[in-house]
Design goal:
The radius of gyration is 14 Å and the shape is globular. It has about 80 residues and is mostly beta strands. It contains no helices and 6 strands. About 10% of the residues are buried. The chain has one domain (about 5-70). It has strands spanning about 5-10, 15-20, 25-40, 45-55, 55-60, 65-70. Strands 1, 2, 3, 4, 5 and 6 form a 6-stranded antiparallel β-sheet that branches. The termini are far apart.
């Protein structure tokens, strides 16, 4: 059985974040660096946000402990 595979990536528009809550209930926002097209073992395709963490690596937001949803938070004009 093969693992899910990523077949394409595209840069994320600034303002997209992975939102979640850690084990202590603290909320977090992690910037989405890019969007990836994945395919499951059963052939189902999906899009997942990839977040940068540590030096030089990315992680699927859905694999982050406490991930809840994606949020778009555009910068306010003049901020």
């Amino acid at each position: 059985m093969r693992r899910d595979e990523l077949s394409q990536i595209a840069p994320a528009t600034p303002g997209w974040y992975a939102y979640g809550k850690d084990g202590g209930g603290e909320e977090f926002l992690s910037p989405v660096a890019c969007w990836a097209l994945g395919e499951s073992n059963s052939g189902v395709r999906y899009v997942v946000g990839m977040c940068a963490h540590r030096q030089g690596s990315v992680e699927a937001a859905t694999d982050m402990a406490g991930f809840v949803e994606y949020r778009y938070l555009p910068e306010e004009a003049g901020a």
